[in-house]
Amino acid sequence: MKKIGLTLGGGGAKGFAHIPILEVFDELGIKPYCITGTSIGAILGALYASGHSATDIVEMIEPLIMPRNAHFKDIIHNKDAFKVLSLIDPHFSLKPQGLIKGEKFLGFLYDQMQVSTFEELKIPLKTVATDFWGRKPVVFDSGDLLPAIRASMAIPYIFTPVISDGRVLVDGGLMNNVPHDLLDPKCDIRIAVDIMGNTSTPTHKPPSPLEAIGHTYQVMMDAMAQEKRANHPVDIYVQPPLLDIDMLDFHKAKAIYEQGRAAKDDFKRKLETQLSSKTPKLNWMRRK
To answer: Which of 16, 39, 21 is nearest to 254 (CA)?
Structure first.
């Protein structure tokens, strides 16, 4: 069986588009040889690497997603709504380092995975964070798992940073949002999933302050991903056709998943072709 390396890119709520890709592996009855991920990609990568199927992951997170327009009475009578609130731990401080600490969410992840170290995972995993002041990526692949995930997802000022070994660690998307360059060189098939998506906003429209902040972040990550793709080719590069989805649009989970499904059949055909071919087409490039 060929060794498959899978990379799950960052993108906040857009990460729900990763699930249809994971479904393909379940449907074909295969597992990646290794996984790399950033931010939401690190979270879903850890869940999948701990032995859960794509269906399991959906069942875990579905109760946590409340529609934006849900009526107050519906929220009050929905026991899962209180589960959502229980995962939010605001950082109260005169000089807050972030709006949410993220510790309770990590507790939820541990309850689902029952795994606390990289070594306990069933599939090898690498996650990426950013050394904020050092301006360089930090890769985790051993030791404590949950702090590494928290660092990888720590979007500046949304989540408080992680202080580790004298470094201030924040979202890995600042340095390497689609880290397929970190896949094990032993992989025969290399797959990267980039969930940045597009917007239908007219190109002549001046951005609002919030749009300026959010889109600048995405422009930066997209530029890095394109350069990474040019310098580190992969066998299959998946870009689900996400449209008008922001990184914090968690209330659009179903729509994001459905948009992600649009890439599923094509990805499945490409993967089956790679699995049936005798020689991976990029092997000669990797030997250089």
So the answer is: 16
All residues at 6 or more sequence positions from 150 whose CB lies less than 8 Å from its CB, including other chains:
102, 103, 106, 159, 162
C-alpha 213: how far from chain center: 20
CA nearest neighbour of 234 among 268, 192, 277: 192
* 21: nearest Cα among 12, 248, 117, 4: 4
pLDDT at 170 over 60: yes
Cβ contact 166:52 at 8 Å = no
Q: Which residue has the tokens 């408080």?
A: 160
Q: How far is CA 122 from the centre of its chain?
A: 18
Question: What is the token pair recorded at 66?
Answer: 């409340």
Phi, psi of 132 (to 5 degrees): -60, -55
Asked if 57 contacts 47 with a C-beta cutoff of 8 angstroms, the reply is yes
What is the distance between the alpha carbons of residues 128 and 172, in angstroms, rounded to a whole number?
5
Rg (CA), the chain: 19
187 closest CA partner among 226, 140, 233: 233
**Confidence class for position 94, pLDDT limits 50, 70, 90:** very low
Q: Residue 98 pLDDT > 70, yes or no?
A: no
State the pLDDT at residue 102.
52
Residue whose token pair is 């896949």: 183
Inter-residue contact 199 to 242 (CB < 8 Å): no
